[in-house]
Amino acid sequence: MRFGKKRFWLMVASFILAAALTACSTGGTTPPSESGEPPASGNEDLKPVTLKIMFPGDPPANWDEVKSEMESRLADTLNVKLNVVFIPWSDVRQKRQVALSSAEDYDLIWDNSPVQNIAAGLYEPLDELIEKYGPDIKAVRSEELMESNKVNGKLYAVPLEVNFIRPWTFVVRKDIREKLGVKPIASYEELIDFMYLVKEKEPGLTPYIPNGTEHIGLKLAGMLDPAANLAAVLNYPGLYTKGNDGKVYNIFDDMDPLIMSTLEQNHKLYQDGILAKDALTLRNSEFAKGKAAVSTFNDFGVNLSTRTSLEKSVPGAAAEAFTLYSPDMKLSSTYKAGNFIAVPVVSKNKERAVQFLNWLNQKDNYDLLAYGIQGKNWEDAGEGLYKPIPENPYAGIPFAWGWNPKLDRIDASLPEDVIALNKWQRDPSYFTPDILAGFTFDPSPVANEVAQLSNAGTEFYDPLVMGVTEPNEGLAAFKKAAYDNVKKVQAEVQKQLDAYLASKK
């Protein structure tokens, strides 16, 4: 069913009003002190609260034990219990929207692209709440990180990020590479050759299952020539920036040769059986199950969860990383976070939710949520480092509720070159501000076009990027379905960007 713009915003306004009346009728919790801590006498003045939290993916190993320890600590401070709902990655976007639109009683929700939900009035502004209850939230994040992730001057979701860029890595089955007599992979061309050899010699193994269109599309095209500074415009299919020139381009009127060559190569990989036939639905979790020789991850190195899951799924299997990034690169940064934690407007526990986030951003508590129980799941390996205990590992999920650059540690068991890459990406001296730094697009003037573009992207753009459709045919079909919407969204992004850049002069 299609809704007119006026009717859509009337629905949003009534939804927010109803949520506000509900919150008023239920009362609130007794607030903590100005420092964000509960009253000095303990938690007797705080009513017991269970916070309902939505997370992506599956619970990590030993989650119940770590959660129990967290609740034990919280009982003596915030009087909080946790109802953590894990949603499979394949369903999290849809179920998040259903939960928000139906006013489910969530208190905290992970979101990797919150702007549209902010524009729809579904997330609570957090500036005053953080000022009153969240000093540690601010203390462990730079001003650039906090300011660059505001929308119209307000912070609606806590940015969860540790890097000045989003790391990106190919993860390879090391045991298969060695079995086939292939030397360590040092270039993208060598990686492609390895995939074809896997198809020939290991017919029971899918050569390549990338983690969706984000990794195999513009991200890949940009990394093949970092100087081009190619980047997708938010999650809007068909729009991109390049050259740090402050201009927004679309792939119909201004197809960049790098993008086109990437689409052509992906289609060849798909035709040749290198890319999984179900690449549109499969994700990098298949690698951890032992079903792929190569996948892609937002990490430098092989993260602990993937290592442990692979070794459990395939005894004797091993993984290694190959990345197109290098510490000698001179790159720019927008300081935009890749993950956020937000408080829905319908939450009845807004103060306690922010107070809890503040608790998570204290060193001992962050270590617990990120690495598990010290001495059982991990050991301190020096400043900014930790060492997981292999016999009882805990692959935490800090990216979904607490990630910050001050408290986060690097896995000391990673190879030295991977540790160096992780240190490089966290050092601001290696990066310069991108022209888009601080700019946040407000999609509300083109809300209908954005929604229609999103639908067309799923139907036409995703198969094009994943190599399922022939590039020229795929582009023609996508253009027929989405050109007008692409142009309208492009014009609005450019209009707002021009105004932002003019305000900086």
Automatic annotation (TrEMBL):
Comp. bias intervals (Low complexity): 26-42
Disordered: region residues: 26-46
InterPro entries in alphabetical order: Bact_solute-bd_prot1 (IPR050490), DUF3502 (IPR022627), SBP (IPR006059)
Organism whose genome encodes this protein: Paenibacillus thailandensis
Organism superkingdom: Bacteria
Keyword Signal: yes
Keyword DNA damage found: no
Name of a matching Pfam family: DUF3502
Coiled-coil spans in chain: none
Keywords: Signal
Signal peptide coordinates: 1-25
Protein name per its UniProtKB record: Extracellular solute-binding protein
DUF3502 domain sequence ranges: 436-502
